[in-house]
Predict the structure.
Amino acid sequence: MSGMLRFIAHCRDESVVGMDVLNLHSPNTKVLLGKTPEEARRLAPILFGFSGRTHEEAVTAACLAAQGLPPPQGEAAIRVERAVAAEMAQGHLWRLLLDWPPLFGHAGPRHRFSHLHRRLSQLRSGPEAYLVGGELLDLVANELLSGFFRAMREPSTLSEFVAMARRGGTIGTTLADVVELGAFIPDASICAPLLPALSAAEWAEGLGGVPDGAFCAAPTWDGQACETGPLARHPASPLVGKVMAQGHRVAARLFARVVDLGDCASRLRHPLPVDLPPLVDAAPLGPSAGVARVAAANGVVIHTVRLEEGRIAEYSVIRPSAWNYHPDGPFMREAIGRPAPERAFTLLSLRALVLALDPAEAYEVEVEFGDGESGQEESSRGSAEDA
């Protein structure tokens, strides 16, 4: 398992006192050097693995901006938006239906996942996308969070929130289990800030040019390591905010993922809504350079490129996992100091935290206690996307 992403917690006095994150992968963008934009676009699904369409659109958008060309317009722009929304939805479904329920001993609805994953993979037209979007909304309303939709009012207490969640389907029950696992949030002031919703033009101004490998491996915004992903996209959602305010940040992330799935479904039905930013955005990054900002299931993806004589001279990618597992990012801040009374609880608590921040690849969690006790538990698989 030497190539698998590994999280090793060092525990003492019933607390996590240290954490190692090993084998956090970065794409080898050097293979793109000397390639034309079209060659790079074709290589993207191979180079970046899962979420290949998302990265393909990021390569295309960044290269168009570097050439001073406009982004796709009209029906072409709608096709791009729907393609990225469909891939985001696939990533969310994998996590929500296949990964989260077994963590708490529940059987996820694999047949439902298989059906929707196949439909999303085979989208060919607007009417078909509209219908699949409706199926996803039906899933959210009737199978994932039906307890909340059936209630006459929002929950006013955490116990009411748990009761409503348990009246829903599998993910609602899992959400309740996450809450009942216990709140852990140190002083809220030490939590990593949420990465703001930034346009490609704002990224261009903030980056100032193609960033180097060190920055891409440990990025910051305004000098701070930030969190990206569904929670950063939906901090204003009332129920997400209610759970987060109670210190249940892991549960808030899980709830935000369901909200994000609903947003993907709406974009499939009505792409490029005027009140939401596009999923793909690009801007110039100086002479013959461009930056693309693309939304993925586990957070924002940033591609930057500089061209010389029509070929790629520099290329970089900032992946969501570089933010969320940054040495000073949300995982480290919330893992160290986390209660570690015994092996089973510690493994479950840390696995939930890892999954909530979504590394988008196969991982294993290990715990080592100062008294010599140790334990290890592996994830069954990585996500259906690898942004």
Observations:
- The longest helix spans residues 74-103.
